[in-house]
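ligand=BIS(adenosine)-5'-pentaphosphate
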Amino acid sequence: MESNGANVGLRLVLLGAPGAGKGTQGKRLSKAYRVPHIATGDIFRRIMEYDTDIGREVGECLEQGQLVSDELAYKLVVGRMQEPDTENGYILDGFPRSLPQAELWQEYAEDINRPVDAVISIEVADEEIVTRIVARRQCATCGAIYNLKFDPPPDPQRCPKQDCNGELVRRDDDNEETIRERLRVYHETTEPIRAYYDELGLLQRLPADNLPPDAVYKKIEELLNALGVASGGGTG
Ligand code: AP5
């Protein structure tokens, strides 16, 4: 359902393990709150298509489930913030992903007077994550995300969206070996930033095991409404 656009504005960080549903929720929230969904993984996947030193370096990191350097990730998001569509806010998905990134972002966002309103940590058990990720498919044309197990499209190879019909593809890093490494890196490097945001009074934890995407979305809306940071005015 489309948003009725009753209100706009939100500066949100979505935290969570690979496959926790950050992209699924981020796209929907972006429509409802009319702020851009900035997913560093998507940006890196575009960069790795270029036959350049940076493209190759990024490609290697993603293939092995390792993080790209903090410096590059930060520079990229700061660059994206120069776009005019970020004026009313942003939904960050996949960034920050380490303590240095979180600290750099906090300082920068305050400097430009667009501080983070809230950090929502979508929390799902590792085994559920693995099940989800091996069944994930993404439309190569419009970027819509599906799941062969939890949200199966009628044709597993084609995007069912009207006027799209793009090819549904599996990400190169969505194999079980790489997922397990991504999870290890998440627990070691990304999870500790929850404590950082908790101390700042920004962290909201959202236990999401066995919760379908609609239920997760509803909980995020409830959290945001309770915080009074924004109102999406629709289900996205
Ligand atoms: P990135 O693209 O950010 O990958 P990720 O964090 O591993 O997250 P995913 O995109 O895999 O999962 P998601 O949480 O968005 O889940 P989704 O909604 O798709 O990063 C890729 C790589 O880039 C990293 O490994 C790293 O190398 C690099 N990188 C990125 N940012 C970086 C940074 N800041 N610094 C350094 N390096 C960086 O859902 C997953 C599946 O589950 C889908 O099929 C979906 O349909 C399904 N699903 C979603 N919600 C539910 C639900 N509630 N119930 C059942 N199924 C569900």
